[in-house]
Amino acid sequence: MAWNEPGKGQDPWKSGNGEQGPPDLDEVVRNLQRRLSGMFGGGKGSGTSGSFAGLGLILMAIFVAWLGTGIYKIDEAERGVIMQFGKYSEITMPGLRWHLPWPIEKVEKVNVSKIRSFPNKTVMLTADENIVDIDLTVQYRAADANAYLFNVRDPDQTLNDVSESAIREVVGKSGMDFVLGEGRTEIAQRTRTLIQETLDQYGTGIEVTSVNVRDAQPPEQVQAAVEDAIKAREDKERFRLEAQAYANDILPRARGQAVRRIEEAEAYKQQVVADAQGEADRFLKLLAEYQKAPQVTRQRLYLQTVEAVLKDANKVIVDVPDGNSLMYLPLDKLIEQGKLMPSIREYRPGGEITSSPSRTEVGSTTRDRRDLRSREDRG
Q1: Does 359 have pLDDT greater than 50?
Q2: Does pTM top 0.85 for this prediction?
Q3: Higher pLDDT, 84 or 48
Q4: Which of 113, 149, 234, 250 would bridge 77 by S-S if both were Cys, CB 3.0 to 4.6 A apart?
């Protein structure tokens, strides 16, 4: 039965207790229009034009708010990558920026100054077929924001895989002693170069800042034996350095002594040659004098020789004419004590005591007498 059937007088939307049912739809629309018109300044009778004006203002406000969502800020250490409908558009520098809001454009911020790092610990074979445990640390940064975001799917995982491959290649070409000993620095440098070359080929936009080999050890099962071998190698190096230090101390001194002795020998040689030349010159001069006066020269040479022989003697011998020579002892003790008198008392035969001249005076007197006798003989 229809709710408005004549004669019944009852509304099926009304309950039996007289309550009102659901409101009419047209009435609801009219009430909403009135409220919107009052909200945006429309009065009674504005009609449909007022409804469209209010709706336009709402859409305008929503549009302005949507444009405001495109304002963004890039920090000093960052770069902004603008994507238009998911495709790379441009890179923006630090500062306050604006772009077309989503879904037209989207901005991705990439920190190009932050140094990231990750450890990589793995077991690998060396060139001499030994096993070593390598603990590697790689530090890097996103140098090219565009390449870092778009060229590879996961650049960090790519770097991890490339690092492991590079360290395996470098260690695989090196011996175990080199890896465990002095070769860590060189291995780190070669690994960094190889990682960077591979990343550049992939175009990841990653720059490797440093590679450190934090630890390199043999397997635990043979670690004790390897440590003994390393200790023996270190002892060998220590002994070598000690021997080198000893050689550096001895050799310069030996060379210095050799040079000094050579110089002394050269000086002695020059001295002997000079003395010989001087003696030869003196002999030639004496020969010339001897040829002029043989007797006088012979007598003078004899006296000079005797004087040279007796000048350091501790005894004094006095030549007494027509008598025996007298020897006075102990004159050496008197000379040491400084008590030797300027002249020596001499007893001549006949009981007369005279003063004997000193050795020098005796020599002069004797030479004078002999010269006198020589002249008498020649006369």
Answers
A1: no
A2: no
A3: 84
A4: 113
The pLDDT assigned to 357 comes to 45
> According to the 3-state scheme, what is the secondary structure of the chain?
CCCCCCCCCCCCCCCCCCCCCCCCHHHHHHHHHHHHHHHCCCCCCCHHHHHHHHHHHHHHHHHHHHHHCCEEEECCCEEEEEEECCEEEEEECCEEEECCCCCCEEEEEEECCCCEEEEEEEEEECCCCCEEEEEEEEEEEECCHHHHHHCCCCHHHHHHHHHHHHHHHHHHCCCHHHHHCCCHHHHHHHHHHHHHHHHHHHCCCEEEEEEEEEEEECCHHHHHHHHHHHHHHHHHHHHHHHHHHHHHHHHHHHHHHHHHHHHHHHHHHHHHHHHHHHHHHHHHHHHHHHHHCHHHHHHHHHHHHHHHHHCCCCCEEECCCCCCCEEECCHHHHHHCCCCCCCEEEECCCCCEEEECCHHHHHHHHHHHHHHHHHHHHC
Q: What does the pLDDT average to over 88-92? A: 81
